[in-house]
Amino acid sequence: MSSFEPSLSTLSHEGLIALLDGDARQQCQLARLLIARLDRSVFLALRDFPRGTTYRDDIVAELLAYLYRRNAKILRDWNPERAGLRGYLDMIAGRFARRWLASQPDTAALLEEQLGPRLLLGAELEVELEYRDGLAQIETFLDAHGSPKDRVRFRALFVLGRSPAEEARDTGTTVEALHTWASRLKKRVRRALPELRELFDVTLEDRVKRVRRRKDLDDE
């Protein structure tokens, strides 16, 4: 019997499928690898929600069950050309953790606290989460196909919402250089992730305004 232990960092799509469809020992190996990665992924996803870390184990358990639904379709749908397996799991874990917190009566307030002073409820909160999901997909893409500088700049300008002037001042570059970099990045993302084209074209604030306008029309 082989003593080979698979690793998520080197596992191919074919290898993942083989473990999913393998014997009990192989399936246990995969489950252990997934649990270890998901625990780390959820921990990182909750770093912006310190009080949410209390629910880490619950989220990991439900996330694992979610990944194995429908014959593990989400795992089988992993496309190595879009992202590495660890990055793919990180993206899914971040999305799942935020939606899990938003769905629980006693934790939804945690999201509202972290997302800012405005009150985001119902459809507005969903818009915010969808926007953050899109940003997470781009971060995953950059993990696989970008440079360290791309990842740092993207997180600063788009995830953390820093202004180009602030980032230029703190990193010793120029605002013009950041604008040029951002323009090139947007072209790359639009080619690689066309489903996220609108992410750069419509700001989060405008998305929320759309929802509020629709709600106002419905209330009239």
Question: Secondary-structure blueprint of this entry?
Answer:
Layout (H helix, E strand, L loop, with lengths): L12 H8 L3 H22 L10 H12 L1 H8 L8 H19 L4 H7 L8 H23 L2 H12 L4 H8 L3 H18 L4 H5 L2 H16 L1
Helix pairs in contact: 1-2, 2-3, 2-5, 5-6, 5-7, 7-8, 7-12
Structure commentary:
With 220 residues, this protein is an all-alpha fold. The chain has 2 domains: 1-114, no CATH class; 120-220, no CATH class. 72% of the residues lie in helices and 0% in strands. It contains 12 helices and no strands. The longest helix has 23 residues, at 123-145.
How many domains? The number is 2
Share of helix among residues? Answer: over 70%
Outline, from the CA principal axes?
Answer: globular
Uncertain regions spanning at least 5 consecutive residues: 117-121
Sheet with most strands: none
Distance between the termini: 70 Å
The structural class is mainly alpha
User: What is the C-alpha radius of gyration, as a whole number of Å?
Assistant: 19 Å
Mean pLDDT: 82
What share of the residues does DSSP label as strand, in percent?
under 5%
Beta-strand segment tally: 0
